[in-house]
Amino acid sequence: MNVALIFIAAAVLAAVCLGVLARRGKEMSLEQWTVGGRGFGAVFVFLLLAGEIYTTFTFLGGSGFAYGKGGPAYYILAYGTLAYVIAYFMLPPIWRFAKENRLYSQPDFFVRKYDSPALGVIVALVGIVALIPYLVLQFKGLGIIVEIAGYGDISPAVAIWIGAAAVTLYVMLSGVHGSAWTSVAKDTMILVVVVFLGIYLPVHYYGGIGPMFEAVEQAKPGFSALPNHGESVWWFSSTVLLTALGFYMWPHSFGSIYTAKNANAIRKNSIVLPLYQLILLFVFFVGFAAILQVPGLTGSDIDLALFKLSVKTFDPWFVGIIGATGVLTALVPGSMILMTAATLLANNLYRAAHKSADDERVSKLAKLFVPIVALVAVYFTLRGGETIVALLLMGYSFVTQLFPALILSLTRQSFVSREGAIAGIVVGVATVAIISLTHATIGTLLPWLPEAAREINVGIIALVLNVVVMVIVSLAMRFAISHASGASRASAG
Amino acid sequence: MRGPYWLGVLPFIGLVIGPFFVNRVTPTILGMPFLLAWIVAWILLTALIMAVIYGLDPDNRRSDL
Q1: N or C: which end of chain A has fewer CB within 10 A?
Q2: pLDDT digits (tens, 9 = 90+) for A244-270
Q3: Which long-range contacts (CB under 8 A, 24 or more apart) does B13-19 make?
Q4: A3-392 adopts what CATH topology?
């Protein structure tokens, strides 16, 4: 075992110990933890929301995408910023409704707003389906770190199994408390490591940020802007819009809204969080620095860029520190995702079918689901092939389908009926599933569109279909009901 | 819509529609390609816009909301 792997193993061990220690002494109820007693002020809400930004997705996926695709990676900077603008207006009414109705999960919100347990089941299913690729990408990241830090001693498949086992053990041993504790350590470490790498690597290899971009421009003209084909400006804008709308539709992000003490705590964060996004710049700098230093990575191997460059540049002990940071960025969000998926299965699916189930049975079942969900994710990780960014975009296409029914339920007199909401979400999600499975693009579906518009993100098309079906079904239901009541009035009179 | 809420539309114009007009590498600003510098500038502007909206928002004067 080399020194890098020892550092990484130590980080996992320390995270598990922190989690076990955090659990000892105080037996918090699930409700107390999930929404923190609804007592979090602006600073705690900030820590919670900011912590969700830095996962393996940004660390390895962001740098890898900048390395492999160049300019299109900037979308990651843009969408978070817009999501916080939406959040300022959208989250306070969600928070208020959740507080008034003492809600704990995302499906609860839909059940209460639309008075439909069936809709709750559908929302829970959408959440679980979307969380799987999100979990797969964390496992993939863990696998990459263990594989590269092993300096060739560990095969990719074994690395993924080790990574998945670490997350599962972590969740089962430390439970929810571990996530809260380690996420502060994780955020501090990633901040220091990413800013250091983003400045040091360009300066070390090129003499600065500017000279680095010049060198990249010389080698690959136009690479640091958007290409004319593939990830074009049409792709960019539609992806920014889609992911900005979907940002708070993730079950675990949605739940974090409930923790706020008041709506002001949420609004204040819309000012600070866009600035916090700027740390991503340094992640991109690492990716661009790698282009000319570790060339030749293609396909899903682009995610290796940051670590390949680190191994080339630094001594094993420092690679170990970067690896330890990377492991935490996968471990903490990975455990949150795994727990959220298991809880959705137990609380929102099992309980919906077995109304008599008590809390104890549901929480036992949730723990049982943890390794099962992990195994499903390992299966998809080993099948592989997709880049980290492609995996997250697939998840986003799914969760964003919840946005129309959610936002319209916040208006005072919504015309959307529960049938309309269900039909819209089902059609939207089915469209995404068909497109992902058949690898269709807008070009193959609508060949008459002009060349440029064919590169629109397919999630947007699903979203449009979703809204159209939702409106038609809602209006048809309203017409049918008014017609029926009109007819019964006529027959009565 | 009350107050300065409409200002919230500006970041969308800058970041969703803007890229159609600024998709270029040169001129570089602070060493960054023009498109990247544009996005960074809009992130800073967005923080400022949200601060203005927050400062003028009548809802924030009520502590219970």
Answers
A1: C
A2: 999 999 998 887 787 777 888 888 888
A3: B14/B38, B14/B42, B14/B45, B14/B46, B15/A78, B15/A81, B15/A82, B15/A240, B15/B39, B15/B42, B16/A82, B16/A237, B16/A240, B16/A241, B17/A237, B18/B42, B19/A226, B19/A233, B19/A236, B19/A237
A4: Sodium/glucose cotransporter (1.20.1730)
